[in-house]
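Annex B.
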Amino acid sequence: MQDKMISKLEILAESAKYDISCASSGTSRSNKNKGIGSASRCGICHSFTADGRCVSLLKIMLTNYCMFDCAYCINRQSNDIPRAGFTPKELADLTIEFYRRNYIEGLFLSSGIVRSADHTMEKMIRVVKILRQEYHFNGYIHMKAIPGASNELIREAGLLVDRMSVNLEIPTERNLKLLAPDKDHQTIYQPMRHIQQNLLENIEDRKKLKSTPKFVPAGQSTQVIIGATDETDNQILQLTAKLYKRPSMKRVYYSGFIPVNSYDKRLPVLQEVPRVRENRLYQADWLLRFYDFNVDEIVNDEHPDLDLTVDPKLSWAIRNPQFFPVDINRDSYRKILRVPGIGVKSAKLIVMARRHRKLNIEALKRIGVVLKRAQFFIVCHEMRTYKLLDSSAEYIRLSLQDQPLIEVNKDPIPQQLVMGW
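Putative DNA modification/repair radical SAM protein: predicted structure tokens.
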């Protein structure tokens, strides 16, 4: 590989690392005819799977030149940083070369905005067209949609890639205009609506003609920056809940603000990345999507921000003692799911197992219940004592608070934290 290409790769991979809105592909595509690569539903990501398998994608920008000057962005126009750009052919060739060497399994493609949104989208689409049509690459491709791009280009891209994302960046319009005066939420929401509309139309078209290519089969995602502005967790999660009502929205990612630029009075002065808050937001997001919670139960006007000392599920349980105890052998799946220390899988196993016999402590351990947490909130066969009655909320909080989370990871590269509760 030429030195010039290596230099471009280093610059543009570095410029792309702060965008975290990529994860499992959520789609499957088998290899066809003489094509190369495949996309797997089990996931393409830049992380490790639960079984320790490392899966990777080439996460890179087409160019880090940008006409905008967003205060929080390393690639902003006013920054004095090395700049580079690939031609579509160069980036497609690089992707295939890395795939053939078994370095990657897919591509995450973003770009700075050059000339106009449509001009930039056309260049990105050209990369994907070369991969799909010339190299017959069937692997996973995630592409950023550029705010302001036309619906025609959004539709063309969506028929070629697996997932598209449009980053909201800042949760409220007021603060977005403060930090990114060239942007507004209306322009950002426009491609989100186009993606959703095209996806719904594509579903109807496929009902009539099954050979119609799928439009973004893995849906869309977005990312918000937290800690750069003064939004409360309540505001952020209310926005998240609205976004999840869109049928095409699969994930909202939370990126703790990282001070990557020289001093700017519009930005907070931070010594550490707000990693604990970021993790709590991911846990609250899990409650919204899988645990049947609504936002007002997690945060509200009285408690506008998440408790950083304990996870949001435990925080809710401590604030709502009237909901407990939960009888493991009698109460509904929904009630059991709300017990700290019991996850979705454990709750389902409990409901199945109790059909055959009454469950005791040993049975709960075998199922995978974290009794250190659950013991304060449940009763079951051979466990009649309801510990929440004999323990103060402060005692429970101190006993179960997540100490390792308070030790903030100082690694400047953002990583999604794993839910362990």
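The chain has two domains: 3-226+238-256, 312-406. DSSP finds 17 helices and ten strands in the chain. Further annotation is deferred to the next reporting cycle.
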